[in-house]
Amino acid sequence: YQRRVHGALASENKSLAHPASVDSLPTSANQEDHVSMATFASRRLLDMVENVCGILAVELLASCQGIDFRKPLKTSTPLEEVKERIRKKIPFYDADRYFSPDIEAAAVFIRSGDHNSLVKSLLPSTN
C-alpha cells in the first residue's frame, strides 16, 4: 500500500513538474507573445507541495510502525518524541483498517510543524 500511494503521488508530481513555459502560445501575430505562466505554475506548485506532504505522511506512518515493531529497542530521543506525538493521534496498526483518515491526520501533523523543534538538531542544514 505504501509504495502505491507514494508512487502515485510522486508520479503525479512528475507530470506537474512539466515546465509551464512550454504551454505559452504566441498571441496577436507575435506582437504580444510574452505570456506570464507564473499564476498557473504557482497553482501547480501548491498541488506538488500537497502531494509531497502526502508522501511524507505515508513515510512517517511506516516509520512509526517499523519503530514499534522493533520494541523494546528505541530510536533517538527526538524521533521517539515524534513517534509518541503521532501515536497520540494515530494508533498502532494491529488490524486492517482504512488508511485515508490516518494519512490525512499525519499530513495535518506535518503541516502543523509541531515536530520541527524536535528534529531540528538532526538536520545538518539547521545546525
Summary of the model, kept short:
The protein has helices spanning 2-16, 38-69, 77-89, 100-112, 116-119.
Topology readout:
Layout: H1 2-16, H2 38-69, H3 77-89, H4 100-112, H5 116-119
Helix pairs in contact: 1-2, 2-4
Please characterize this protein's 3D structure:
The chain has five helices and no strands. The chain is mainly α and 127 residues long. Helix 1 (2-16) runs antiparallel to helix 2 (38-69) and helix 2 packs across helix 4. The model has no long low-confidence stretch (mean pLDDT 83).
Order of helices and strands: HHHHH
**Classification by helices and strands:** mainly alpha
Percent of residues in helical segments?
A: 55-70%
Q: Stretches where pLDDT falls below 50 for ≥5 residues? A: none
Q: What is the radius of gyration computed over CA atoms, rounded to a whole number of angstroms?
A: 20 Å
Distance between the termini: 35 Å
Sheet with the most strands? none
Mean pLDDT equals: 83
What share of residues are in beta strands? under 5%
The helix count comes to 5
Number of strands: 0
- Shape label: elongated
Give me some keywords for this one:
about 0% strand, about 130 residues, elongated, mainly alpha
